[in-house]
Design the sequence.
């Protein structure tokens, strides 16, 4: 079985990350899932921004948690991106797209996902943050409003929660027993090396660099009942490795290219 292809921050190799345009392109390209990072604005809105500060990805400066949604919405999140379009013709034919500019709220992204029932949304909560567990509480509350917080089963769920923070993953499990979770891993500590995860985590989430040096990890995790979500996979050799190892989900910046490598 081939890995499901998850668009990392949207089709971020070809559109500015965390913009409507990046996610719309990923859906158009046939991605199985979309990945986003969420933070809280000063006035309590969940916004899709990776970094603690907006400096890298917008026309402004400042810490996300100190800026209101109104202020975040005034910034340009599209013109910074150095990524080239997928096809050279777009340089001439593609009209300006204002959807690449504004800050993306999680609510707007959920509406996009809701319109495409076959697409999963992987939501990463960022830590450490000044609001601590309020991020997860707000996330679950929003999912509850959309009827997505308590799916009939983890397999049926259209949303998956993720974090590098084990406390964050545990907090979500305290809110809902059936929303699937991923514990993201930057390294394999002694506690994680054998593949076992805490009971509140459903999937293991190693970076692809870990599988290059320890490919047997995927099977060790599977022996404990935990399938694998791998980030961020763009190189052909890494795509091939993930397919060979049987990872469940593969996060990539270029879903169309990755699916071609998977012969999809």
Sequence:
């Amino acid at each position: 079985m081939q890995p499901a292809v998850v668009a990392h921050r949207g089709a971020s190799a070809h559109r500015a990350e965390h913009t409507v345009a990046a996610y719309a392109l990923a859906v158009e390209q046939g991605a199985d899932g979309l990945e986003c990072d969420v933070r809280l604005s000063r006035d309590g809105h969940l916004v899709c921004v990776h970094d603690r500060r907006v400096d890298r990805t917008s026309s402004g400066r400042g810490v996300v948690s100190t800026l209101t949604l109104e202020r975040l919405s005034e910034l340009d999140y599209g013109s910074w991106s150095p990524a080239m379009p997928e096809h050279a013709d777009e340089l001439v034919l593609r009209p300006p797209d204002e959807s690449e500019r504004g800050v993306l709220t999680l609510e707007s992204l959920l509406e996009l996902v809701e319109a495409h029932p076959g697409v999963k949304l992987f939501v990463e909560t960022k830590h450490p943050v000044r609001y601590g567990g309020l991020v997860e509480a707000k996330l679950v509350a929003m999912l509850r409003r959309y009827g997505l917080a308590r799916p009939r089963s983890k397999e049926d769920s259209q949303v998956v929660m993720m974090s590098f923070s084990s406390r964050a993953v545990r907090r979500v499990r305290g809110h809902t027993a059936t929303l699937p979770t991923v514990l993201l891993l930057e390294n394999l500590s002694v506690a994680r090396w054998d593949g076992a995860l805490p009971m509140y985590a459903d999937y293991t989430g190693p970076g692809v660099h870990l599988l290059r040096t320890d490919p047997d990890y995927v099977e060790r995790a599977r022996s404990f009942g935990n399938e694998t979500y791998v980030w961020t996979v763009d190189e052909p050799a890494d795509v091939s490795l993930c397919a060979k190892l049987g990872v469940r989900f593969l996060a990539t910046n270029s879903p169309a290219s990755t699916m071609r490598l998977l012969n999809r």
Notes: The beta strands are 4-8, 33-40, 46-47, 120-125, 159-163, 181-185, 203-206, 229-230, 249-252. The CA atoms of residues 52 and 224 lie 34 Å apart.
